[in-house]
Each structure stands twice: as structure tokens, then as C-alpha cells.
């Protein structure tokens, strides 16, 4: 099996340059499902650059193009059962990016024969690379990441806000129930960065509903390799269904010792999946 971290890092670096070239420019917002859900030309060009760079590098390694597949947020599903599958979020935190807020990133996950094997998240504004390979630990710019346990009352929670009304109304109820029992709450609205900050003990709990494989696959591996868990609102592990790449997931990320205590706040609420 070819080690993919360097391949993904080169692709993410190239895409990061594209994003920074567009950052804080007056970009056209292309709407998807609502005025809260949009993409820009930066999203599209970043994804194109990642796909082309990875393909080029793998061809140089002797991997046949017929064995390479991609799933990307911007209408990219090509060979989701290929031996070498890459799942791309070319701009996680598009709203932040469009409004000049520095918390956005590039997320790339690698599945080898259907198994999540490597993940990399790159934050271009501060040149931070978070990455992990299954069974080999998680790192930020070469420094190992190790998740620490804190009591619930000492925890800083990142609770993301969905663009979907049917989702965020239920999320608000969850945060309302949880907030009196934790140290504080923040909302950066970048699922990839939030989980990276969890892995380096800035946040202690991350919650979001209706996320997708491109939002969380790289983050999941980085978190698990740092000692954390990613589960749904019933406490079940997040397992990606490559047969249905647009399936939505409800997500709680935390230290394993916090699992049962956090889930107690979800017992009276239904999941957010449609």
C-alpha cells in the first residue's frame, strides 16, 4: 500500500494557494439549498486542483488511473468503489471564507479498498497540517496529538449550526440542555477544524447534525488516532457507507470517558437524519 500523507499534503498545499488567492475578494456566491448554503469559484477550483494533483502523483507512482476514485463536495462522485478512493472537501468553512473569517480548511481522506486509512486537514491561513495514518498516530506539523480527558464542567464545546432549519432548531435544543453543564460554548462552523482543535485539546466536545463524508472522514481518523471517538446521537460509531456517498451523519466527537455523560443529554431527542 502506498503511503498517501505526502500525496495529500502536496495536493492540499496547491489547493491552499488557490484559496488564498481568492480569499477576501468579492466573490459571487452560488446558492445550493438556501441563502445559507452556497459555494464559490474557490471551492470549485480547489477541488479540481486536488483531483488533478493526486491523480498526477499516483500515476507517477505506477498506480493505474482506473484504480483511482474520488468523492468531493462539489458534485464529484467518480469511482467510489475504486481501490484508491479520495474523499475531498475542497473548502470546509465556505461561509467563513466568503466573509473573511480565517477558520476554513481543506480536508482529504484516503480509503484503501474501502477502509479509511489516512486523513489530512490543512488550514492555509496559518500553514497548519493535521494528519493521521491508521494505527500510526495523529500529528500537527510533525508534533504528536494526544487527547486529554476533562470533567464535563471543564469542557469547552464547539456546537456547529446547520444551514437547514429542521436541523438547527433541534441542535439549539441540544445546546440549551448541555450548556449549563459545561465551561463554555463556541461556534467556528468548520467541522474539520473543530475536530482538529479537539484533537489538540482546545475544544473538548464537538457536536453537529447532518454532516457528510467529506466533512468528517479525515477528521474522524485524526481524532481516533489522537485517542478520541466520533459517534452518532445514539452513541453508535460513525461508519461510512460508500454505497451512499451523500448520506448525512449526526456527529458527537469527544474523549471516550465522556461518552455516556454526553449521551444523557440526547436521550429525549430524536436524531437529526431525515
Description of the molecule:
The chain contains seven helices and 15 strands. The longest helix is centred in the N-terminal third of the chain and has 20 residues. By secondary structure, the protein is of the alpha+beta class. The strands form three sheets. The chain has an eight-stranded mixed beta sheet, sandwiched between helices. A hairpin with a 4-residue loop joins β7 and β8. It folds into two domains: 139 residues, Fructose-1,6-Bisphosphatase, Chain A, domain 1; 112 residues, D-Maltodextrin-Binding Protein, domain 2. The C terminus is likely disordered.
What is the global morphology? globular
Mean pLDDT: 90
CATH superfamily of the largest domain: Fructose-1,6-Bisphosphatase, subunit A, domain 1
Largest sheet: 8 strands, mixed
Low-confidence stretches: 270-274
Number of strands: 15
User: What is the domain total for the residues?
Assistant: 2
Instruction: Figure out the total of helices.
Output: 7
Radius of gyration: 18 Å
Order of helices and strands: HEEHEEEHEEEEEEHEHEHEEH
Beta-strand proportion:
25-35%
Give the proportion of residues in helices: 25-40%
End-to-end distance, in Å? 37 Å
Could you give the order of strands across the largest sheet? 4-3-5-6-7-8-9-10
Query: Structural class, from helix and strand content?
Result: alpha+beta
CATH topology of the largest domain: Fructose-1,6-Bisphosphatase, Chain A, domain 1
Amino acid at each position: 500500500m502506498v503511503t498517501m500523507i505526502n500525496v495529500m499534503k502536496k495536493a492540499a498545499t496547491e489547493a491552499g494557494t488557490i484559496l488564498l488567492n481568492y480569499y477576501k475578494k468579492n466573490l459571487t456566491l452560488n446558492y445550493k439549498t438556501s441563502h445559507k448554503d452556497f459555494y464559490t469559484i474557490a471551492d470549485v477550483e480547489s477541488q479540481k486542483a486536488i483531483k488533478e494533483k493526486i491523480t498526477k502523483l499516483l500515476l507517477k507512482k505506477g498506480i493505474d488511473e482506473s484504480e483511482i476514485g474520488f468523492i468531493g463536495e462539489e458534485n464529484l462522485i467518480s469511482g467510489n468503489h475504486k481501490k484508491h478512493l479520495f474523499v475531498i472537501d475542497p473548502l470546509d468553512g465556505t461561509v467563513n471564507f466568503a466573509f473573511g473569517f480565517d477558520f476554513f480548511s481543506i480536508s482529504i481522506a484516503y480509503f484503501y479498498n474501502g477502509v479509511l486509512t489516512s486523513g489530512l486537514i490543512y488550514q492555509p491561513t496559518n500553514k497548519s497540517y493535521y494528519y493521521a495514518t491508521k494505527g500510526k498516530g495523529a500529528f500537527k506539523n510533525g508534533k504528536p496529538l494526544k487527547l486529554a480527558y476533562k470533567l464535563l464542567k471543564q469542557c469547552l464545546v464547539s456546537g456547529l449550526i446547520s444551514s437547514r432549519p429542521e436541523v438547527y432548531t433541534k441542535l439549539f435544543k441540544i445546546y440549551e440542555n448541555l450548556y449549563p453543564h459545561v465551561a463554555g460554548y463556541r461556534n467556528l462552523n468548520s467541522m474539520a477544524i473543530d475536530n482538529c482543535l479537539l484533537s489538540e485539546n482546545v475544544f473538548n466536545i464537538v457536536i453537529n447534525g447532518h454532516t457528510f463524508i467529506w466533512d468528517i472522514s479525515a477528521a474522524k481518523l485524526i481524532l481516533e488516532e489522537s485517542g478520541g471517538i466520533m459517534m452518532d446521537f445514539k452513541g453508535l460509531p460513525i461508519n461510512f457507507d460508500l454505497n451512499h456517498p451523500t448520506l448525512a451523519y449526526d456527529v458527537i466527537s469527544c474523549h471516550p470517558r465522556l461518552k455516556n455523560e454526553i449521551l444523557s443529554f440526547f436521550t429525549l431527542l430524536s436524531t437529526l437524519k431525515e
